[in-house]
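Many introductory courses stop at the sequence. We go one step further.
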Amino acid sequence: MKRPFRPYPLHELGVRPLTTGLIPEPRPEGRLIHLAQPGHQGVAGLGGDGRLAPQPPAPSRYLETINEYSSYGPNSLLAGVGADPWGGTSQSFMSVPPLAITLPGRRYMFRLAAVAIGHRQEAYLDGFRQGLQIGYVQPGPIANETSLVQIEVRTPWWHFPDANVSWHLTFQHGASCVQPTSLVGMPPGMSADVTAIEPALLAAFPPPTAAAYTPPGRGIPPGQPIGSLGNFWDLRIPFASPSVPRSLGLRVVGPGVISMFATIRQTDPTRPGRAAPPAIAGLYLPAEEQFLIDYPNAIYTGIAGSLLVRTTALV
């Protein structure tokens, strides 16, 4: 009788059973490599096949800075009094020379505020302030002393009948960012360098007399207009405003200098037709016209400005 076939157990045949589960394959040893890329850093590793496997770059981080750059200038009325603990004589409003120069192109030109932008740096002009003062220097209660009575102009389009102010926001691409040295003979607060950043009354050369003042560059503010703000005549953001609206966002790329200039044609109180308006009962007058009724010989006495600039830098 034939015996039926019976498979032998595997352990009797000396065969080890297959184990279940995953056995990790051997992989070559690898090292991390830091990839330096413009604007960010990425990390790459070695995959199972030994080839370079780049990973997504880390997100870039930028530091945003907002600064307000304001005007300042010497005030002769503060001599001997001081304006700060260090004995300085500067104030936010820059003094306007009192002499009226009627020659064509002889407007006083001021650099009110400026900021240097580095190479390939992005900057945004977000806002600005404007300040303008009229006043009258009258004799003081003590002999040989004077006192200044003045107000800030707040009516946007007001000006003297024979005088006015223009404002200019420009960008001088590639301009030097180095503080210049003043020319010999330049009075304090006056400069001949149109590419500098410190506030100053700009002059082509040291004027031997007040009447010989000559602005540089034929009185034309240097640089390219920023947006539509290259030349305007009204007061838009008063200097005494508690805050500056960040509504412009005008972009520039360095290197260069963002500047705020102003030119002034000074009034002549002795000029025929410069008389103060008559006071009429019941007639409303702006504060500036009322000031002229009280002080008929008032002139432009101070001007100020500031720039609100936002910059970004990679960190």
